[in-house]
Amino acid sequence: MTRKLYFINIFMILTFCLAHMTLTHPATSYGQQKEVSEKASSETIYEADDSTPSIFARAWEGGIIVFMVLLILIVLSILSWAVGIAKLLYLNKLSSTGKVFIKSFWDSRSLNSLNGRLSEYPYSPIKEVFRSGYAELVRGSQMREQAGTNTQLVMNAAVDNLTRSLAKAKMAEKQKMERLLSFLAITASTGPFIGLFGTVWGIMGAFESIARSGSASLAAVAPGISEALIATAFGLAAAIPAVVGYNMANARIRALLNQVDGFSADFLNIVERYLVSDKAKPNSGSGASHHAEQL
Fold first, then answer.
1. 68 in the same domain as 180
2. Angle of CA points 25, 31, 33, to nearest 5°
């Protein structure tokens, strides 16, 4: 019995030692393998970072269509920034010169004297509206002279002609201020779709490559899709500045047009007051130059 217990104890000790050796060896091997794997992966990442291709190289790998789309979007983005900034600076300048002309308008002794000094003022929409309105006012004075009497019909016709002349000048200045805004609108609306076209084309090429290689793993799919998505990113890069520039320029143009409308209303009020006071005079002066100088 004692022998049996002795052999049983020896057997259990051997079994425990064998089990301990079996368990500790794989653990050490796994630890070594893990350390080696982490070291290799870090070296791979380091090498990958050193050899990361540029955006243009990745777009070229996506195909000639994706690369051409990328170039188009880069050009549109640069032009959008240039047009937007230039337009905002130009509109700010028009606003400041318009305020200067309005101040001179109210400080002038007469419209005739202000018209004689127009060349001293820089270009502004309000200045051009005044030029057009004053020219029409002179023509209205000539019409009154030819009519011979200051009838209500002649006065109404002169005021209506002056109103249409001011509105026409305003529309002409609006067209000048809105120049190149259509480019920003087109870029804002078509930029994302151009980028989406490049992305779809690139993904088609990526799936064709997967079909030829016969591998559908993430390592095989990711590079082609990432190269295709570059086009979408550049499409947004072209559209976003175009949208911002278009909306900011439109806001400035609306403010300038409101300024022109206020000036036109003041100009019409001055002319109508002059016509009413001139009609009340028993012997009003004759001649277009006489009427213009009295304003």
1. yes
2. 100
Long-range contacts of 180-185 (CB under 8 A, 24+ apart): 180/83, 180/87, 181/87, 181/246, 181/249, 181/250, 183/79, 183/80, 183/83, 184/80, 184/83, 184/84, 184/87, 184/242, 184/243, 184/245, 184/246, 184/249, 185/242, 185/246
Are 164 and 245 part of one and the same domain? yes
pLDDT in tens, 139-169: 888 877 776 665 777 778 888 899 999 999 9
Nearest to 280 by CA among 115, 152, 172: 152
- Looking up tokens 């982490």, which residue turns up? 38
Same domain, 149 and 252: yes
Could you tell me the two tokens for 175?
């067209």
Q: How many domains does the chain have?
A: 2
Domain that holds residue 24: 1-52
Reported as a single tens digit per residue, the pLDDT across 6-21 is: 444 444 444 444 444 4
